[in-house]
């Protein structure tokens, strides 16, 4: 008897991966979404920025970081000589918007992260970025496999590794909007990211 099997993201090309995400039903987040948010940028970008997951605006527009935090991220990218949609690829840990019972954004659960992570892993394999930047706690902890008690402050300032590539951890732009005093720390993180990129030599 032929058993229908879902193709593993590991074997997919970019278009197949986009289609698989667009039709994904691997976790309950598929029921509430308006759009999946695959990511934006050149799929040969050398920089990959990874956020948490779509919020309200991203769910409506199908693009990551399009709200106020996204404006700040765009400015951060510009300061690094990078541009959304071009040499910086922007993606999230989960591709569908997590909401609580009252319709507000919430972080994804560990199960939702586990269901979605193979897509991001395949994106990384196909993009082959030189440096990964985790924006905030959810991205950092999900990639590094750490528990929720680990603060971002402990992970900043070191070059971690994920998928055989350097990974820098910094604050999430939405956090930064609330804590402008931590802007200097983000510049320090980004300068670590830029020197890591320069050392990686491509
Ligand atoms: N916050 C995120 O982490 N990702 C988005 O795409 C938007 C807001």
Automatic annotation (TrEMBL):
Keyword rRNA processing appears in the UniProt entry: no
Domain Uracil-DNA glycosylase-like as annotated: residue spans: 38-191
Enzyme Commission identifier(s): 3.2.2.27
Tagged with keyword Repressor: no
Entry's Gene Ontology molecular function annotations: 4 iron, 4 sulfur cluster binding; metal ion binding; uracil DNA N-glycosylase activity
Membership in a protein family: Belongs to the uracil-DNA glycosylase (UDG) superfamily. Type 4 (UDGa) family.
Protein name listed in UniProt: Type-4 uracil-DNA glycosylase
Lineage of source species: Bacteria, Pseudomonadati, Pseudomonadota, Betaproteobacteria, Burkholderiales
Span covered, complete protein: 93 to 294 of 294
